[in-house]
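chain below, 334 aa
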Amino acid sequence: MRISHSFIFITLAALPLLDAQSKKPQGAAGEWPMYNRDLSGSRFSPLAQINTKNVGKLTQAWTYKLPRHPSSGGITGGYELTPIVVDGVMYLTSVDSVVALEPETGKELWRYRVAAGQVSKRGVAYWPGDQNNAARIIFTAGRKMVGLNAKTGKLDPGFGKEGEVDMVVPYDSAPVVYKNMLLVGANTGEAPATGQPGDTRGYDARTGAKVWDFHSVPQPGEPGHETWEGDGWKDRSGVNNWGFSLTVDTEKRLKFSLVRLSFPEKAVYRYKVEVSEDQQTWKTVADQSQASQPESGRDIAITDGSSGRWVRVSFSDAKAAALAEIRVKGLVID
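prediction:
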């Protein structure tokens, strides 16, 4: 079987029961405003029109062909994106472009082509703007983060330097938008052990200026630095956010980041980040007395949501707050 080098990215459903209804999704329920749909990373849509009884009646409404990504190794075409839909417009990335489409027809509304390099294969972010700035589409291309006018697709000169920000360390994913902050991870290798830092970073969505760095390898004076032997912390690479996205607990003002281990050392890192009341500064919060790794595989370390202190709990402790629940052979692990 021969696979075409033009990848058919998406097909939209057409159902007879839609004929009597508006083609445009109604309100926020019909939108997908960010990679994970929401800051909690639920990737869940509340829409219920398509269900197990009528899903078999779906028919193709349109297709939009994307060129095969150079990193492709299969029939996916190399893409790992989720198109976002905001205010009745769909936004997605191609190999060298960002495009805006009409969701009902697949009609291209605008296309922005990067002069050099490749656009992230994981899509774009949407910042709604404020009284001084129009809404923007934000995406990454290697070490660059780019801001476009969401309506026109043109570079927004008010973002960074004529629409571009040099992140220095690349990030191949869509930034997470939280209020006026753009949160990005870092794409660094697991080996060799030294190189560019894998820090998570926060940028001002209005200006593009960097606001903070979260050092995933604690620097001198930061909690956890004492766990690194000698100069092992210096120029340490890896230890970066590898989950393609980040999540934010908007009630407790906490950002969560999946962090991979450094190579070749096998260390345990446990971090919590607390946001200031003005939402503009972030700091590491940890209990120094709990900085060592768990003593056995039957212990896990989490943060107490009320006090912000690190605590150690066993699998049998059902009172502790948890980020997730995992069942292994009937055993519930919080």
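Residues 287-334 form one domain. The first strand starts at residue 6 and ends at 8.
thats it, cya
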